[in-house]
Known about the structure:
alpha/beta; globular; Elongation Factor Tu (Ef-tu), domain 3; seven-stranded mixed sheet; binds flavin-adenine dinucleotide; single chain; Rossmann fold
Amino acid sequence: xxxxxxxxxxxxxxxxxxxxxxxxxxxxxxxxxxxxxxxxxxxxxxxxxxxxxxxxxxxxxxxxxxxxxxxxxxxxxxxxxxxxxxxxxxxxxxxxxxxxxxxxxxxxxxxxxxxxxxxxxxxxxxxxxxxxxxxxxxxxxxxxxxxxxxxxxxxxxxxxxxxxxxxxxxxxxxxxxxxxxxxxxxxxxxxxxxxxxxxxxxxxxxxxxxxxxxxxxxxxxxxxxxxxxxxxxxxxxxxxxxxxxxxxxxxxxxxxxxxxxxxxxxxxxxxxxxxxxxxxxxxxxxxxxxxxxxxxxxxxxxxxxxxxxxxxxxxxxxxxxxxxxxxxxxxxxxxxxxxxxxxxxxxxxxxxxxxxxxxxxxxxxxxxxxxxxxxxxxxxxxxxxxxxxxxxxxxxxxxxxxxxxxxxxxxxxxxxxxxxxxxxxxxxxxxxxxxxxxxxxxxxxxxxxxxxxxxxxxxxxxxxxxxxxxxxxxxxxxxxxxxxxxxxxxxxxxxxxxxxxxxxxxxxxxxxxxxxxxxxxxxxxxxxxxxxxxxxxxxxxxxxxxxxxxxxxxxxxxxxxxxxxxxxxxxxxxxxxxxxxxxxxxxxxxxxxxxxxxxxxxxxxxxxxxxxxxxxxxxxxxxxxxxxxxxxxxxxxxxxxxxxxxxxxxxxxxxxxxxxxxxxxxxxxxxxxxxxxxxxxxxxxxxxxxxxx
Length: 693
Ligand code: FAD
């Protein structure tokens, strides 16, 4: 048959596509050394690092890879716990791998004597985590393009053995959708799942226990399937720490908390991102209210000259520093105080080990800047530390806590203990000097930047990012410790310093506020910007309805600021309804004066509705106000209004969703289930957006 021009064009395109497909791994290989500096910097790509997972496993003698899709570090932590357990209990040769660092075209060549594990967090509205986006696109497009009619034996992944665990939150609509979809795709492609796909639920607060309960039967199934013999688990380090008493901690090549080489060399070089923060000046800071034991901060972070940019609705990440008080506690209980400034070099014992911070460094820098030392302790970690207890009685107690879920809850979780507090309590202050430093580095999370919904408009202040944050301070009646949020108390201390307050740190937490080598001196904080999908409609005349009680109002301050400016500039601005709630008008009604000014700019297009839960005899919340305005809300929705919810994910956001469905049902005379479908459709078309935490 003759080929016409169109056929030739199509064929050529197909051929090009095929070549690109099969050569993807070699052409687009980007090796990443997270500490080499800014990542998009070509020089940072270290030659010779493969994106071929099979090649990597073969060269390092591994038969089990645990991929993680992680946003806040929990999935990554679970992956490394599975790796350790697989190795110490079953003799598997394990490695963990960031989904972003490999290609998946050769999943079909996995031999049957290897196993792949996936630990996948679901983020926001059922989305993959940032590092899992490409993998998810790949596996879902494979699923779509795959001919479902083929015989089982011809399915491409029949040799692939895999295990899966998902991290999700049942307060979100698409609960654990990552693990659910990925297992669905893999199963349809013929892969063999070992054990059930696990699902951890952060919404119910049972993530850790869900993980522990899932992994035991999974290990049994895996052991059967791969003919593995279980043995008594002993701690096998993945890292090696070497002390360097001859090195001077002040010498130029020792990292004292600098996140990467650029920072060590004193050059701030962009692009600034999740691997490379910008040390930003805080232009202004103040407290929006100060009621006893409750602080709410407003800060203006100056990004001019950094090349960082944001659009209204984005998030800013703040890189925290641990409080000196907690660093000291940690050092003391582990017997490290005397040598806290000793230079140490940290190495992986094999090529696949991940070192969570740059080295050489010091004990002090690692504990202060790189590890999440204040976080809750996991039950599995208590068991892992038991053999290193100072004496047999304490060891027995640690073992009991590690084995007994309820006892763990009473002794540890209910008291909000962090690791050092627990160890202090159990040994009554006696040092735990048998604990290898590597086990804590391997067992604790890497410190995570915290996100804040930007509370300014990029149209109004392109180079200054506002944040609105409540300082975390959780007191349990009868407990000996008050839990102090890591980042927000650090921000509070920065604000105090900026104002030359005589008590630079109101809680005696004593931050190293000037940063490593005084690099943060003059009120600076390390940040990066994360772009979000929480966005105003591009057409300002569209109506919007915003629900943001408490600090949930943060992004809406940005939204309203933007619309007020558009109104001042003569643009037509649609109805802008803001539902806000707090305790008392006179106590925590944040930005009260500003809302008045926006009203002057926008006139009747702007309406603010307030619910004060402690002002009257009856508690009023934003949900009640919504109901009172049912008719108008439905009318605006019919006019294609955008509906936004920000703030508390656990209760408020869920209730608002329910109330909205009730309003639609009542107003339109339809069933609640129909109305729920309408809300779902709004979510799918981005007319209903959430920014919740
Ligand atoms: P952390 O130290 O992280 O502690 C937070 C909580 O973790 C504690 O309250 C406690 O419940 C638990 N916890 C910590 N340690 C322990 C322990 N040892 N035992 C038991 N429980 C423990 N916040 C705002 O104020 N404003 C915003 O605009 C805002 N926007 C956000 C946007 C997004 C997308 C996200 C994900 C979060 C947002 N947050 C916002 C929340 C913010 O990121 C932080 O979580 C919050 O400020 C607390 O941080 P922290 O470091 O001070 O507290």
